[in-house]
C-alpha cells in the first residue's frame, strides 16, 4: 500500500448561537470516523456542548468515542495563562537588565485585556496541530461569532503590527550601527534578539494565514437555520471573512423542513456549496440518535477524500 504522508485537514463549524454548530460538528466527526478516517473533534467554545451531545465526559486530553473518533475540550483559561507566562519569560529573557521588572503582579489584569481570548484559541489551535500525529481530520466546534471572527482575522491583523514593528526595530538598529561605527570604527555584528523574535513571529503568522485561507487544507462550514436572524448573521459573517479573503466552503442548512425554500438561500450564498441537515423530531443527543440520523442523511457535499491521494502534501 502507498505510504501515507499525513497532515490533518481542518474543518471549522461556525454560525449563530443555537444554529447547530456543535450538533453539526458532532455529526460530521462521527460520519468521518464511521468511514475509518481518524478524526479529532475539538470543542473551542468555552460553553462546551460535546459532553451533552455524546452523553460522555470529555476534557483537555482526547477521550475516545469509537476507534476512529476522539474528543477534546479546550480549556481557554489554561491557554490564556500559558500565553501570559510565555510573554513574561520572553520579556525577562530579552530585557535581562530589567531585574526589577515584575509582570506577575499584572497577570490578573492582563487576563481580561482585549484580544487575549483569540490569542489563547490560536495557541490552542497550533498546539492541536502540532500534536495531531496521524489524524486525518480536525473538526473544530467554534465559539460565538464575535470571538470566532477575531480568531480567523488575528493572523492578518498581527502581521500588520509585526511588519511595522520590524520596520521600526530595523531603523533603531541602523542608528545604533552608525553610532557604534563612529565609536569603534567597525560594524557591530551581533544579532538582535528583538529583531529575530519579530521575524520568527512573522513567519508563524504567515503560515497560519496561508493555512486558514487554503481550501485544500482548511474548510469553513457556516451553520445556518431557515430564519431571518440566522440568515442575516450568516451574511455578515461571510462579508467580514471575505474582507480578509477567507472563503466559506459550505453552508450547512440545519433544522431544514419541507416548508423551507432553498433557492433564495442558494442565491444568497452562491459562493458556497449547500449541505442540508433536516430538522429531527427529537433532540439530537446520544450516540444512537446521532447514528440513526446519519444513516438516513444524504450528503450533498463530499467531505471524505480518497486516502491514497489524501494528505500527499504538507501545508508547511
Ligand atoms: N437538525 C436538528 N434537528 C433537531 N434539533 C437540532 C438539530 N440541530 C441542532 N438541534 C438542537 O438545537 C439546539 C442547538 O444546537 P447546538 O448544536 O447546541 O447549537 P450551537 O452549537 O450552534 O449553539 C440543541 O438543543 C440541539 O439539540
Ligand atoms: Mg455549541
**CATH top level assignment of the domain at 9-149 and 217-296:** Alpha Beta
User: Helix segment count?
Assistant: 10
Number of strands: 8
**Within the CATH hierarchy, at the fold level, what is the topology of the domain at 9-149 and 217-296?**
Rossmann fold
The percentage helix is 40-55%
The dominant shape is elongated
Instruction: List the ions, cofactors and other small molecules found in this model.
Output: adenosine-5'-diphosphate, magnesium ion
Characterise the protein shown here:
- The protein is α/β, with parallel strands linked by helices and 316 residues long.
- It has a domain at 9-149 and 217-296: Rossmann fold (3-Layer(aba) Sandwich).
- It is 47% helix and 14% strand.
- The chain has 10 helices and 8 strands.
- Strands 3-4-2-5-1-6-7-8 form an 8-stranded mixed sheet.
- Helix 8 (228-243) links the parallel strand 6 and strand 7 (250-256).
- Helix 5 packs across helix 6.
- The protein is elongated and about 80 Å long.
- The two termini are 25 Å apart.
- The model is unreliable at 1-6 (pLDDT under 50).
- Adenosine-5'-diphosphate is lined by residues 15, 17-23, 49, 223, 254-255, 277, 279-280, 283-284.
Give a quick rundown of the structure.
The chain is an alpha/beta fold. The chain has helices spanning 21-34, 50-54, 76-94, 107-110, 116-130, 145-184, 193-213, 228-243, 263-268, 287-296, and strands at residues 9-15, 39-43, 63-64, 69-73, 137-141, 218-224, 250-256, 273-278. An eight-stranded mixed beta sheet has the order 3-4-2-5-1-6-7-8.
Amino acid at each position: 500500500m502507498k505510504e501515507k504522508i499525513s497532515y490533518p485537514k481542518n474543518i471549522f463549524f461556525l454560525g449563530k448561537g443555537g444554529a447547530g454548530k456543535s450538533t453539526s460538528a458532532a455529526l460530521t466527526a462521527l460520519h468521518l470516523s464511521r468511514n475509518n478516517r481518524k478524526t479529532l473533534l475539538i470543542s473551542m467554545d468555552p460553553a462546551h456542548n460535546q459532553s451533552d451531545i455524546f452523553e460522555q465526559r470529555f476534557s483537555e486530553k482526547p477521550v475516545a468515542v469509537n476507534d476512529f473518533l476522539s474528543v477534546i475540550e479546550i480549556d481557554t483559561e489554561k491557554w490564556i495563562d500559558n500565553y501570559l507566562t510565555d510573554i513574561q519569560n520572553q520579556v525577562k529573557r530579552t530585557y535581562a537588565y530589567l531585574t526589577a521588572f515584575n509582570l506577575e503582579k499584572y497577570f490578573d489584569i492582563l487576563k481580561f485585556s482585549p484580544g487575549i481570548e483569540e490569542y489563547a484559541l490560536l495557541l490552542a489551535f497550533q498546539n492541536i496541530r502540532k500534536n495531531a500525529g496521524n489524524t486525518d481530520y480536525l473538526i473544530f466546534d467554534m465559539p460565538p461569532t464575535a470571538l470566532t471572527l477575531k480568531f480567523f482575522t488575528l493572523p492578518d491583523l498581527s502581521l500588520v503590527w509585526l511588519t511595522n514593528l520590524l520596520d521600526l526595530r530595523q531603523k533603531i538598529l541602523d542608528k545604533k550601527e552608525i553610532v557604534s561605527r563612529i565609536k569603534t570604527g567597525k560594524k557591530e555584528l551581533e544579532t538582535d534578539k528583538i529583531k529575530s523574535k519579530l521575524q520568527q513571529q512573522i513567519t508563524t503568522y504567515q503560515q497560519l494565514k496561508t493555512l486558514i485561507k487554503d481550501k485544500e487544507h482548511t474548510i469553513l462550514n457556516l451553520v445556518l437555520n431557515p430564519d431571518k436572524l440566522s440568515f442575516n448573521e450568516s451574511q455578515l459573517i461571510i462579508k467580514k471573512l471575505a474582507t480578509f479573503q477567507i472563503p466559506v466552503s459550505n453552508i450547512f442548512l440545519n433544522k431544514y423542513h419541507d416548508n423551507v425554500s432553498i433557492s433564495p438561500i442558494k442565491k444568497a450564498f452562491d459562493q458556497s456549496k449547500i449541505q442540508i441537515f433536516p430538522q429531527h423530531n427529537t433532540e439530537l443527543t446520544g450516540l444512537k440518535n446521532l447514528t440513526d440520523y446519519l444513516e438516513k442523511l444524504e450528503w450533498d457535499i463530499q467531505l471524505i477524500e480518497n486516502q491514497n491521494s489524501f494528505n500527499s502534501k504538507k501545508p508547511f
